[in-house]
Amino acid sequence: MLISMSRWPFLQIPKRLVLLLVLDLLFFALVNPASSNSLIVILGCLLLGLTLYTIFRALGRILTALVAVSDLTQRRLSIFAAALLMFLLLMQSIGQLSRRDILAALLLAAALYLYVSYISGESSRASTKDTRAERN
C-alpha cells in the first residue's frame, strides 16, 4: 500500500522552502565572500537565516503531528533555533567557536526562550484579567 501525501499534509514540502533552497544554491554558488563587499555577505547571512527558519518551521509542523504544539510555540522555537544556529555558524566562520562557546550559547538560548515564554504567558493572563474586569 502506497502512502498518500493527502492523508498526511504535514509531510508535504512547502514551496517556500524549495524556493529558498534554490536561491541559497544559486547565491552561494555564484558569490565569492572573500572578494565581495560586506553588503553581499550580510545578504547571504539573511538568506541563510530565513532558510533555516523555514526548515525549522517545516520540522515544527511534522512535530505537531506527534506532539500537540501550538502555532505560536512552533514559531517561537523556530526563531530561537534559527538564531542559535546562525550565531554558531557565524562564530565558526570567523574562527571564534569553541566547545565552551557552544555550551554557553545553548544555555543562554534556553534561558532566553524560557524567559520569553514566561513573559508572553504573563501578558496573556493579564489581558485575560483585564477583559474579565471590563465585562463585569
Structure description:
The structure is a single chain. This protein is mainly alpha-helical and 136 residues long. Helix content is 77%, strand content 0%. The protein contains four helices and no strands. It has helices at residues 15-30, 38-66, 71-93, 99-135. The longest helix is centred in the last third of the chain and has 37 residues, at 99-135. It is globular, with a radius of gyration of 20 Å. It starts with 14 loop residues before the first helix and ends with a helix.
Question: What features would you highlight for this structure?
Answer:
0% strand; 136 residues; 4 helices; globular; mainly alpha; 77% helix
Shape: globular
End-to-end CA span:
58 Å
Order of helices and strands: HHHH
- In helices, the fraction of residues equals over 70%
Work out the strand percent: under 5%
The assigned structural class equals: mainly alpha
Strand element count: 0
Largest sheet: none
Low-pLDDT stretches: none
Number of helices: 4
Mind telling me the C-alpha Rg? 20 Å
Provide mean pLDDT, rounded: 84
